[in-house]
Each structure stands twice: as structure tokens, then as C-alpha cells.
Records
---
Amino acid sequence: MILVFDINETLLDTAALAPFFDEVFGDPAVRTEWFLTLEETWMTATLTGRYLPFGHLAKSALRQTGWRHGVEINEARQHRLIELLMTLPAHPDVAPALAALRAKGYRLTALTNGTLKAVQHQLSQEGLEAAFDVILSVDSVACYKPGQPAYQHAADHWHVSPRELVMIAAHGWDLIGAASAGCKTAFIARPGKVIDPQLFQPDWQADSLTALSQQLMAEVSP
């Protein structure tokens, strides 16, 4: 089985954006509202076939959040958000868990809704780029996750069926999309992330990548 990892929130910690939202909105919790708006924006883009790069949508979500709160979102603030997204820190459990999986012979794939250039920079500045056998972006298929073409893109790279992939993410919508495409799924319950078992049950789940990787190493062959 080939392991496929989501990036933002799953491996990289968007809580690092809290000071920016505190400065702009006077409330760090607005970060969550912005991210939900961003998710809504790319879901709409996926459903309507109106693909735009991730950075464009991130800025749009910030502008929309600003309008709701009566806060001016100028070009400088939009640019600053993108700069911060490019330098998100990894969750502490990421590097050791990826190293353990590589040592056991698993093939590791990064699959992001961001652009390829952006995710390469994000992973490189955290020293994680070399942990992956390949880094893929939905830019190549102009379809965001949870659209099925995004997961098929990863399968096509490896010349396998989606059934040979395990999608690992901190987002229920990502895993539901992956399962619909035929993948196995593994959920990381990062802070604030939940999944409703009456709606969807992933194949594996844990509250850290350390625990999740141990489950996978015990049950999934490389």
C-alpha cells in the first residue's frame, strides 16, 4: 500500500496563523472562520469546474471574512497571509513518524490542494521534502480534493488502482472524497478536528501521527 498525506492542518500546523488573525481581527479564533470559508470556496470551485490556484482562493476567503467583520483587507494583508502559509511549522509528531514509516519501506506521497511550488517550499523549509517519494498537487488535474480526479492523480502517478492508496488527513471531507475514489482512509484527530462515525468511518484513526503510523505499520504491508 502507498501512503498519501494531506499537508495543511494534517502535517503543517495552521495554528501558527493565530497571531495574524488576532492582529487583523482582534480575535485569533477568526482563523477557523477563514479556513472554513476557504474550504467552502474550493468546494464550490470543484463542483462548478471553475478551478483557480489555491493562493487566489486563500486571499478571496480572507477578503470575504473581512467583509463579514467590517475589516479592511488590503493587498499587504493578503500578501502577508500567503507569506505565513508558506512558512507553517510542522506538527511535532510529523518528522519522526515519517522517518519511521520510511524506515519500514513505505512509499510516501504528499497530495496537496496547494500549488506544487508552494508545497515544495513548505516542506523544504521544515526539512520534510526528502521524506516523500513524490510531492503532487491538484494543480495538475485542475480539481481540488475531495474531487475524485485528485486522488486518481496520485494513483496514476504510481500506476496503481486507488485501492492501493491509504489517504491520511485531518479532514473528514478529504477522507470521504478519498473513500469515494476507492482509497483506504486514515484520520488524524488534530485539535478541533472531528469525524462523525454515523456519517463516515475511516479505516484507521488516532489523535497523533505517531499513533496512526504505528497502527499502519502493524496492519498494512509496505
---
Amino acid sequence: MTIVLNHTIVPVGDRMRGARLLAGLLGVEAGEPVGPFAPVRVNADLTLDFDDRFGARPGHYAFLVDDAVFDAALAFAERSGLAWGSAPRQVDRQVNHLGGGRGVYVLDPDGIAYELFTAVP
């Protein structure tokens, strides 16, 4: 059997805000709350469960995306007034080109850095 990460818990200050933010970045839907969690299914194998019971903790979640998702995520970050930049915690509003693709780090209000990067063309 192949090992697949199925879900992980993302500690945030407000579970619905956190779920909606990630869902907006990735162009997916935030699910209805299930118990203490607000789930975001990012693909067939992985769900991120946002949990606000114990407070927020900074984190880093990296997503390999295609160009269309990358462009839409960057537009969402701009429209939403989110801080973003070319390196973790660097709010320079620049896109990096590490490894030949494009990459950005989008910061949420809880200190989570969502890294979005494209594959080498």
C-alpha cells in the first residue's frame, strides 16, 4: 500500500476564517464544520481540518499547483489584502523563480505561510 497523507489539523484563531482563506487561495470549497473542525478538501487524498480550540500557531503549508491555480491564488491574495512575497515572512509582493517555476508565500492573519509554487515549465 502506498502511504498517503490523508488529513492534518491546522491550529488557527478562527476555524471558519482559516478554512475560507485556504479554500479561496486554492479555488476549492470549504466544507461544513464537522465537530470542532472546518475541513478543506484540497484533493482526493488530503483534507486540512481547521481547529480553533487551542489557539493559532504559525505554520508552513506548501502546495504544488498549476499555472491557472497559481494566478488565481495570487489574484485572491491581492483582492483579500493578504500579505505575500517571494520568501517566508518576506512581504515584498514579488514572485520567486526558484527551480525554474514561480513561487509565493501568502501569509494569513494567524501567521501561517501558504507556499504556492509551480513546476518547472
---
Amino acid sequence: MEKLKDKIVFISGASSGIGKACAEAFAKAGAHLILCARSTDKVKAVARELQDMYKIEIVSFGLDVQDKKLVNAAIDNLPEKWRKIDILVNNAGLARGLEKLYEGDTDDWDAMIDTNVKGLLYLTRKIVPFMLKNQVNGHIINIGSIAGIHAYPGGAVYCATKTAVKFISDGLRMDLVDKPIRVTAVQPGMVETNFSVVRFHGDKQKAGSVYAGIKPLTAEDIADVVMYAASAPPHVQICEVTVTPTNQATGGIVYKENVNLH
């Protein structure tokens, strides 16, 4: 993807899963990367691996996007040449718990709202003005979820946060309609990453049962979709992509082979 060579791409939540897969895909295309994640050690390890493999430039640092002051400081402290960001991939996000709304843990709610919604807003608010100032053909790619389209039992708050991602993307696209900046919302269905491990607070057995009997998407599948949107000609805006495994129709309608669902 020659058109992405030497672009500067900022990816949040880049230490694992979809964020890491996107980082590798952009690195392979010759882009230079700014990578952040809550785990400093993990994101720096990803950066070292990609630098060695693809001989690109990478800036990496630990960042919890829930903290507005830390986000502002991290972006403000970027060297001038790294402020010429072409593509922002708002990937940092999480789900916590699967209880009924009236039994939910309010700390879990705070984590989801502060990361999935406010963190995305904080990064977007800081980086889009750079794109406008530098007059680049910019691109904001927000990783949402099919949960933002179809609610499911036990997921009310998570689904609400991903609905917010969809409508923030739509609204931002309207705000930028007279600018050379595209906005894409990618809405995956079931993707096997550490997502469910986080949702179930580290219970790997419970997390594994989510994907039993179905071939889920991989992080690399979603990275392929991100790259498709990012590599489209500048006059082409992929507004929204919803992608699921073949045996998933909505967030709650899934066919699992040889699995007793009752």
C-alpha cells in the first residue's frame, strides 16, 4: 500500500488485539507510528518488534485515555515532526461485566464510559486540530462495535458506549464535511482477542466459552478492514463498516455448532 508509506499514524490501545494488529498492518505498509496503551511495557515491546521488522520510526508511550490531563500532556509533548498526524485510529476500549443493568457494578460503568467514549473524545479533540493546521488529508478511524447497533442482555452500558462511538463518528463527519478529513466507524462483531478476558475480570475459562462452536473474527481481520478504509483514494470516504463472523447475524443472534446454548 504505497499510498500509506511515510504517513504518521496514531493508534490507541496498541499493545494487543486489534490495536496491535493495526499497528503491524500500517508498519508493513511503511507508515510511521505513534503507539499508546495503558501498559507501557507491552506497547514498547510492540514498538521494538515492529521497528526491527519493518525499519520504520515509532514513538510509543503508556497512556490511559480515561485521564484527560494525561492525554493532553502526551499530545502536547510530541516533538513537532510527530504532530503531523495523518491518521488517528481510536481503538482503546473495553467491556466490563455482563450483569443485568440493575445489578451492574458502577465502577465497571465508569471504566467503559471513560475509555470508550470520553477517551475517544479527548484524543480526537487534540489531534484533529493538528490535521487542520497541517492541511493534511486526514482520517479518523473509530473502532466501534456491532453492540452499538444491536443491544443484547447484560450489555446495556457497553452497548450504549458503542452507540456513542457511532454517533460521534457521524457528527464529526458532518463537522468536517468541508475539510479534507475522512471519518470511518468500524463496527466488528465477535473478535477473539483478550476482550472477553477483560470483560470477565480475568476469567479465561468463561471468556473462552464465548467463542466455543463458532469461528470468530481475528484482530487481523479487523486490521484488514481498517487498512481498506485508510488506503481508499482521498475522494472516497468509507463512512461505516459492520463486519461479523459468517455465523453471526447481530450482537445476540449467533449460530454455534454442537454447543448447548441452554
